[in-house]
Amino acid sequence: MVASPSPNTPLFLSTSLRLHFSLVGRDTRRVHMDRLASCFIQHGAPSQSFKLYSLQRRPSTSLLRRSVPIVRCAAAHASTAAKATSVDVVNGSGNGGGGGGFDFETYLSAKAKAVHDALDVALRDLRCPASLSASMRYSVLAGGKRLRPALAIAACELAGGLAAAATPVACAVEMIHTASLIHDDMPCMDDGALRRGRPSNHVAFGEPTALLAGDALLALAFEHVARGSAAAGVPADRALRAVMELGSAAGVGGVAAGQVADMEAEGDPSVGLAALEYIHVHKAARLVEAAAVSGAIVGGAGDAEAERVRRYAHFLGLLSQVVDDVLDVTGTSEQLGKTVGKDAAAGKATYPRLLGLEGAHAYAGELVAKAEAELDGFDAAGAAPLRHLARFMAYRQH
After folding, report:
1. If one looks up domain 109-395 in CATH, what number appears?
2. pLDDT number for residue 278
3. What residues pair up with 87 in beta bridges, in sequence order?
4. Which residue of 218, 323, 325, 343 lies most exposed, with the fewest beta carbons within 10 A?
5. What is the pTM of this model?
6. Do 91 and 55 touch, CB atoms closer than 8 A?
7. Residues 6+ positions from 39 with CB-CB distance below 8 Å
């Protein structure tokens, strides 16, 4: 049975990618997939339990050179929210499958909780006006998927390091990301009134305080890497390289450059794919790269390993933006926790606008395949979290 695309269907569930589901009703499939994509939002306390099994490959049925995941949702209906829904994620045979029985939900939830707790500690007792401290905590501790911090820790572990070594980097990445969101939502930028289901920072605290909270978080991120890495016993040369990665990603080599290019492209009908990719590589993908590479570096990765992790994360970052662009068209403000339709209203170039929804779906599939290809030479068990993370990014519904 071939799934038919609909406005609420996850990215891979399109006829162009030929995904086959177990014979359950369309509404049941959609509910299970939505639950899969949302299981990680509440760190440490997901509302549903999901088992993610062996990642084996099977021959591709699409035009992609590598297959995309096939998700079989259990047809059993839970009478209460406390009953677990079982979801199998299966993808062919061969190496790099990640091993059987890897519990993706537990892994990500544990990393999210650890990072959340570390962020809470880092933002306590700040020597600043109470309003500034409250504004910083409001946005950083608002929740979110914590995918970038989890990526940093997974890359560190892939390189043979301990999670504790990457926790300062993971926290710094989240501070930088949150600072970019605070600034991005301001009236002088994208003018977003909602973020993570709550009023944006400038709505809650006023524009001056929000602006300064973003600035303070950006500065605190680098201080935290330096202090935290030393406390965790990370060699100084590794910590310095991580700081360089994060600094490039936050400034002219990343978020700042991408944001300016994004604003300058608003309403310009001549913006094509090359310009759009520049925007998204800098505004979004570069920070994802920095999270992964910094994690790998503090974990002891060599140059060749770090560059393979960088390429994986580059494709992952672009994938995230393709999904964001599609959800801005197909999602709702309630579903996403932020204002939708802003891109179209601002006349921005997006992947659905330039490629169409089906084209954007297909491009997402290509990006997942390319990301996974970069993991093939690594230990299968060590790479399993990164494989699952790429697929989670593609399936997410918010």
Report:
1. 1.10.600.10
2. 96
3. 73
4. 343
5. 0.75
6. yes
7. 46, 47, 48, 50, 105
Instruction: Give the 3-state DSSP-derived string for 300-353, with helices as H, strands as E and coil as C.
Output: CCCHHHHHHHHHHHHHHHHHHHHHHHHHHHHCCHHHHCCCCCHHHHCCCCCHHH
Single out the residue of 394, 331, 398, 396 nearest to residue 361, CA to CA. 394
The tokens of 125 are what? 């007792």
- 319-334 pLDDT per residue, tens: 999 999 999 888 777 7
Q: Is 301 exposed, middle or buried (0-12, 13-18, 19+ CB in 10 A)?
A: buried
DSSP labels, 192-240: -SEETTEE-HHHHH-HHHHHHHHHHHHHHHHHHHHHHHHHTT--HHHHH
C-alpha 321/C-alpha 282 separation (Å) is 11
Over residues 369-393, the mean pLDDT reads 95
**Domain spans, the chain:** 109-395
Sign of CA dihedral 5, 43, 280, 185: positive
Residue type, 322: V
Residue 15 is classified by DSSP as: G
Are 238 and 298 in contact by the 8 Å Cβ rule? The answer is yes
